[in-house]
Write the structure tokens for this entry.
Amino acid sequence: MQTGRYILILMVVLLGFSLLFSGCVEETFSRVEDPVEQEEDTEEPEEEGLTEEEERQLAEEARAEERRQREEALKEELGHFFVPLPADEPADNPHVQAKGIYVTGNTAGGTGRFAELLDLLDNTELNTMVIDVKNDHGLMTYNSEIEIVKEVGANRATPIRDISALMETLNEHDVYPIARVVVFRDPHLPEKQPDWAIQKKDGSGVWRDRSGYGWVNPYDKNVWDYNIAIAKEAALHGFREIQFDYVRFPENARRVDEEANFPGSEGKERDEAIEAFLAYAREELAEYNVHISADVFGVISTSWGDSDRIGQSWERIAPLTEIISPMIYPSHYGPGYFGFAVPDANPGGTVTRALEDALKRNAPLENPGIIRPWLQSFTATWVRGHIRYGAEQVREQIDAALELGIDEYLIWNAANRYHKDAFLPADKAAQREEAKKSERREAGHDQLGRTAEEALKDYLEAMRRTRWREAYAWQSTTNTMDHTEFREWIDSHTASLEDYEITNQSSAGDNVEFTLSAELKFSEGNLSLENSKFQVLQENGVWRVRPDNEFLEILTKDNGIND
């Protein structure tokens, strides 16, 4: 009985072990059969991605850090010339058809006169103010934060107390603001940094002009960096254009040559120094979102090269500026200039002749600056035979420019007194400008008022008479020759154009093709060309001529008769 009981207990225990073992085996097999389930059980949950806002914030932080590093590097490189970088996303700054007036710092920093000028701009075609930032005395017109400006004391007695408020007012009145920076005529800087100035040849110190003023040295890079730093800061304040004035050497070159020394010139010509400064300024200001213009003597549009030896030649300056402003004040031309006994007494005629020359000088250049002249609004009492300049004389100059397709201008009066009646309401001025453009289009005229055929005749006459200056303006060379190379090419001719006859004309869009016969003269006889094809096309606002290749080749052949 007891033995049976033990057997029963043993069987129950064995059965329990059996069930336990089979359960373990099933669990093991189930894991082997379902590996995917095992993977899911052990997989860590994915992290959530960054939101758009978080990504934007990180990108901004990266840009800010990059900007900080750049500014630190610039501080190290530029030292006391350092100016902060511009905004990462600058405002739009499209070209403006500027019609402006000159405004001194004293006027801009005042109330009464400045309010009158704002009213003048609000109610006429005028839309621009050229405001002194660094004036003719070498002084700032507002308090600059540039270290070097503070070091040399150029912030002395600044008339514009709140530059931000001034810029806001200009913006409210939709005024296009241009910062005038007087560059190399700086009477202040030589007193503080004499090593940066033009020196006396005898080594006794700073050279001075007849007024007793020192000039800074246009060859000195410190002077470049000083003025460019001021231009950068003006851009940061909201000026949309930098106008460099007195980008030249002192006048009276003969006296200067006798008395002055220019450290660092190293054989470089004066117009090369001015060209180098403007190229450097253009590079340095590139990211500051400003247009660059330069004022030049009016006579350089007529004279060739740096004839006055002041460092200004049209061909070196015009391609480096977006706007070139010749100061073509009739009072500044001597007796007999342009055939006028007193150019000052002939405002319209003087402006016409000066701007015709400027258009000719721009014609052969690749991407030259827009011509925006300075016009006279003052009476030149010191000129013998002068006339009084009022609204009529100012308007006569504006209209003379418009006749040549030049619809931008700046008006100069040192006291900032302007004649309201000289200017039209904006809508009437726009209508007049459009009418003039339509007249030119319908007549097939260029800005000089010539048809394509008249332009071709001008070119052929220049070639026949070997007037290289005229031929250079009229011959389309696709910018492969400068004026010096062109003159050498003219001088190398072994044949000359004796006579020509235009036999046919056909047009295709803006291009006009002419067929002509030409008689070429050699030392040994003449050669006739028949059916020569000459293309006439508009470049930089004027009709220019692309001659037949055979015609050009024969001009310089060693023996045109026998070839």
User: Anything to note?
Assistant: The chain has 19 helices and 15 strands.
